[in-house]
Amino acid sequence: RNISEPVNGPVIYTVSSLTAGTKYTFTLFSVFESVRSSGVNTAAVTAPPNTDSFQSIGQNETSITLQWNQVNTNVSYVLKFNGTERNISEPVNGPVIYTVSSLTAGTKYTFTLFSVFESVRSSGVNTAAVTAPPNTDNFKSIGQNETSITLQWDQVNTNVSFVLKFNGTERNISEPVNGPVIYTVSSLTAGSKYTFTLFSVFESVRSSGVNTAAVTAPPNTDSFKSIGQNEISITLQRNQVNTNVSFVLKFHGTERNISKPVGDGPVFHTVSSLTAGTKYTFTLFSVC
Length: 288
What we know:
Layout: E1 23-28, E2 31-32, E3 35-36, E4 40-45, E5 55-59, E6 64-68, E7 76-81, E8 84-88, E9 96-100, E10 108-117, E11 120-121, E12 125-130, E13 140-144, E14 149-153, E15 161-166, E16 169-173, E17 181-185, E18 193-202, E19 205-206, E20 210-215, E21 225-229, E22 234-238, E23 246-251, E24 254-258, E25 267-271, E26 283-287
Antiparallel strand pairs: 1-4, 2-3, 5-6, 6-9, 7-8, 7-10, 10-11, 10-12, 13-14, 14-17, 15-16, 15-18, 18-19, 18-20, 21-22, 22-25, 23-24, 23-26
């Protein structure tokens, strides 16, 4: 290429239409009256192309796994994030998978990836990803009745919402304002055991989850009545709830445990060692 005589100062000339990620050797001749000097050489490289398909493919509480397509075997990479840079060697083949570790749970990171050829960087491509939030602490049942269970857990932080999974369903629970979270699961079946899994959620990414099990109260028996007595005993009758339910009989300041019945049909229980001519009030609890 012929370059006109400059007016003054250093000469700046841009060579365009080159191939990305390529090393070129340039020879420059001074020319006077069509006569050339012996020439001087310099070598330079074009910046490599950016990679494509730069994305997050997974995460846990302390790491994010990134993937991108390889540019070519002569290109290495620099990954920049959170004010730091990490050098990544030239891959052998296929897509590049790289895990960034020692991160903070429940945090959003922006990563910039540069392709590097002969110490020259590409313009860089960006992707954002988040680490999974931490699991909550103290996830437990604090109460129940026949059709509901009340759960409690500690708040993670104000940016974290929750998903409660149980019995093949999921319920989304909004970010709490402050303090421990109390949530009542209703429309349950009496006398049933449920396993609940609670996920913390940050930017649509879930924690690994924590579990707790709890039961609803069994239904009360029906047809609870006295069917006979003598001077020192009273015989009670009740209908069986189911074979998994035992009972507690409370009267006169005492409690008696009554085992689960064996068969079907009404159950009879005789309370003995009573005082003649005395009125007693009996309360019967189903226990699951």
